[in-house]
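Example record for the data management plan.
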Amino acid sequence: MGKTIGVPALPYYCPVCENKLPYWQPFRRDIGNGKSRLEPGGRLCPLCFTFERTRHIVLYLKHFKILEAKPRFLHFAPENILEGRLRAALGSQYVTTDLFKKGVDRKEDITKMTIQTNSFDFIYCSNVLEHIPDDRAAMSELHRVLAPGGTAIIQVPIKEGQKTYEDFSITDPEARFQHFGQADHVRWYGPDIQERLEAAGFEVTPFYMADVLGLPPAELERMNIARKELCHKCVKKK
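Corresponding structural encoding:
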């Protein structure tokens, strides 16, 4: 009789699309003026193309049972696959918004939204503020539309150990890549973003997703979420 050859188990898992994976795909970053650069190391799920931050928030919502409370949920710049999951869980309680993306529920300028005050219990705003010149106005608007006692999870690219760096005279996309890490970014944040968020009225708790999820190192590696990304839990006082 012939020998049965087993199929090797796939070593990785994406909690967003819920698929086992053989590898993680590298990210190609826009460096301006039609140029791009393939970054070393795998970050993206090769099936749903989500980053660590999306895998993180899916696990965060599950770990803290956020969706079970059926919050009025506002999602900025929604990732398509995450939007589908959240809309299925929350129905009409879930609202997407973006100024430029097609298919969102509301087209809003984050610095001057038409949304009524105290409209949402939970806000997810990831990798948005680094694109916004007047980020202080945006933070104030996030605070305004959040209901008392509500929570906003805000995430931006942060350079640890440095203060926020911005220079609005830099407008060339390639120069912005050199200064701010991406062609369409207008600043590099430092941990002092907390001061800006507090000035908008929030009670702010910085945290690392990989630390609060309570997962063993092997699971962090399996889901490719061991990367340290500083987030901010921003609560509006009751």
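Summary line stored alongside the record: The first helix runs from residue 52 to 63.
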